[in-house]
User: Fold this.
Amino acid sequence: MELKPGYKRTEVGVVPEDWDVVTASDACELVVDCKNRTPPVVNHSDYAVVRTPNVRNGQFVVEDLRFTDENSYREWTARAVPQNGDIMITREAPLGEVCAVPADRKVCLGQRMMLYRPSLSRTNSSYLLYSLMSLPVRANLLRKIGGSTVGHAKVDDIRFLQLPLPSLSEQRSIATSLSDVDALLSSLDQLIAKKRDIKQATMQQLLTGKQRLPGFSGEWETKFLGDVTQIVSGGTPKTSISEYWDGGIPWCTPTDITSRPGKYLRETARTISSQGLAASSATLLPAGSLLLCSRATIGELKISTTPVSTNQGFKALICGSAVNNEFLYYVLLTMKAAMVERASGSTFLEISKGDTSRLAIYLPQLDEQVAIASVLSDMDVEITELEQKREKTRALKQGMMQELLTGRIRLV
Assistant:
């Protein structure tokens, strides 16, 4: 393909002619490898050990963070003490994940970790982080080690990794633009987390009758699930008979429940035929049924929007006239622990039809159920809209990185 005027082809793709392409060693004043062994671990201290699970998608991950003692910290940082502005990178498991050294922690490098310290006169730290996350740089690193993120990079693969390097002022402009989008993503993450916490608190109040909505004052009753719903087990047609499969009847497995976001199930990965339905213990459930996982992922559930059948991993619920399916959906979300506690089995845990039917639920009158479900549904809609906005913002960031970090769009 003919090059656009003013651009050149390099090991990290096509970039503007006035950009340099340098090794990480040239862009940094220091490139440091870990000690290639694990420091002693203590329950908690001021000294954190950054391992590969703590570095994901440009972020420092505090979950499963481990700690070491002060003497070990000094030994493991003898080559360099990680500081604000440094970038950490994984050499495997998986390869090429990066994050900035956190400003509020003393850290040392665990196994399979390396550290870049940018040269302040040549390289902007934030730009370096984004560049290391860009597709051309990551693809170049993967080519060096055989093309897989599960591979292992040598120290020199990290030390001499090639990077596109515009002027320092353009680096700062690129980093500022991408940092602004990251700030928006961070604010959306915080808002979504806050909204989820509010929803959980609201569920705790409304679903137990501790707080009543305006206009409702009637007594609540304790009922067994089997008294207010029809509980239906599923089935699987013989897989060896092709006529039983790929028909017009949605056939749900627990994966359909756990792999799709939201409250409703609108489609399934597989379908069965009317012959398959008739030749198995599967049942055609009406739209609005609660598809409750009864094994493996016990307690996970969705509401079907169309008639659907399930495999044996379900105790589906068809609501009677005394209970609203949307209200019951939210109640069951709070009962996962109770279901797991009742589950039994030697090969895998499963809650039986009988134990499912004996689950006790607390019910107001139907009109109050509908009102409570409406409040919680509105909260779900708000959270979903925020999550969709976050996904669009993430996509925007990826597009910006592709354009800015290759020089297709210039900011100076």
